[in-house]
Amino acid sequence: MKRNPVTALGLCFSALLASLPALAQEFTCQEDTQCRGDAETKCATSTLEIKIKPRGGHTDMWIAGEGPYAASRARDGDMRRWAIKAFGGSHRLDLQPDGSFLYLGNRNKRFTGTCTET
Description:
Elements: H1 5-23, E1 27-35, E2 43-45, E3 49-55, E4 58-63, E5 66-76, E6 79-84, E7 92-95, E8 100-104, E9 110-117
Antiparallel strand pairs: 1-2, 1-3, 1-9, 3-4, 4-5, 5-6, 6-7, 7-8, 8-9
């Protein structure tokens, strides 16, 4: 059976629209652990906060009250990713469906914690 290309395009567009609300949500992310980029096991507690707010066609991020930084947004399965454009995408936050996140920051530092929708 031959598939109608208009119907196939409509299905793809519907899937894209279904993913947009999840990317347009606002989040506040509270870090609880920071690990050095040059030493996997050198970790300490952290209280850094990250805010993610959609604005128009892009997303703004605030890191420890500094910003806004324009960020690109994407999905990889159920994971959501925001990458700060000013740093060429090397600074990014990956949010898992359970609210846990990993933020890669300056000098490849790794921050982990939990995000909540605000």
